[in-house]
Design goal:
Structural class: alpha+beta
Family: Belongs to the diacylglycerol/lipid kinase family.
Distance between the termini: 29 Å
Cofactor: Mg(2+)
InterPro entries: ATP-NAD_kinase_N (IPR017438), Diacylglycerol_kinase_cat_dom (IPR001206), Lipid_Phosphate_FormReg (IPR050187), NAD/diacylglycerol_kinase_sf (IPR016064), YegS/DAGK_C (IPR045540)
Pfam families: DAGK_cat, YegS_C
Radius of gyration: 21 Å
Keywords: ATP-binding, Kinase, Lipid biosynthesis, Lipid metabolism, Nucleotide-binding, Phospholipid biosynthesis, Phospholipid metabolism, Transferase
Amino acid sequence: MSTPQILLLSLLLALAAAGVVWASVRRRRRKSAGQAVVKTLAPGHQRVAVVINPIKVQAPAARVLLEQACELAGWDPPLFLETTADSPGFEQARWAVQSGADVVVAAGGDGTVREVARALANNPAALGLLPLGTGNLLARNLGLPVLDLPAAVSTALHGQERRIDMGTMTQENSVTGETSSSAFLVMGGIGLDAEVLAATRDDLKERVGWMAYSEAGVRLLPGRRTKMSISLDGEPARVRKVRSILFANIGRLPAGIDFIPEARMDDGLLDVVVMSPRSLAGWLWLAGKVVTKYPKDLPVIDHRRAKTVEISVGQPTRTQLDGDVTGTATTVRVQVNPLALLIRSPAPARPRPRPFGGRNQVPARNGAAAGRTS
């Protein structure tokens, strides 16, 4: 869960205006999340491995559905590899690749997906998704049916293959001397977004899902800005007073909110958003821009695009990747890995043919664009 969503939910819930946002989302026509479709799989034998988080409620049902699907296709039974608290998916996925898996299915939440993707980067094995978590950010951006487990199984085993970018964040804490590096697929950040994630109550998240973040957002929204130094693509650093800095591979959040409509998961670039409101009015201004898709820049939000990002801050500050808190850092370095991940996604919907006879309706020549993806 990232700052923009938290702020929108917090403000709109507090001001009883959620209905306006829902109506605007319902009216929005969904756009394609990217363009790099590689191929549609032909029928044939596949070796399937599944990295599964056994504590997820739907994990037993996912096992049964995957076994049935492989049996129905005439394939070998899937290889199941369970995650643990100490081994959240990377080692299991690496073992699956070494065992000759054609597709490695990540059955869990965003953390499981991130660890499996890290092992599959720049590898011919494909990543399949079974969204069993709360956010399921990548699955939502790909248009996967997050509430339809059988359909998700079908996509993971038979969906289209495409390559998408990945991001890598390396962070250092000059106070503790700790360093770490991790991959992300959707969005990361430093500042308020990570603080809200850390403050969200687990019991509330279990009851109401991702809307639980709004409660923590209301509590933490008032606060002081922090000086951060930001450098993009090696340019001279700029010092800004900010509340949060986001670096995104994909811009769509839960509830259908397109926070960064221009973001593409296969363009080899990161979308960097610096948010610097210092009052409630500033947050309302920012929220209004997102909801209404106001095209012009505002003083409280700055949007840039880059291949590399370096952020420095005087005191250790919380960070997050794809909705998971990733500790505190004084320096964060982020870079994009273009088209590093082969992934299974739903086939794009074919447009419905329009009836002829109406004004300005001309039949396409030679069936042009009848099944073409954009």
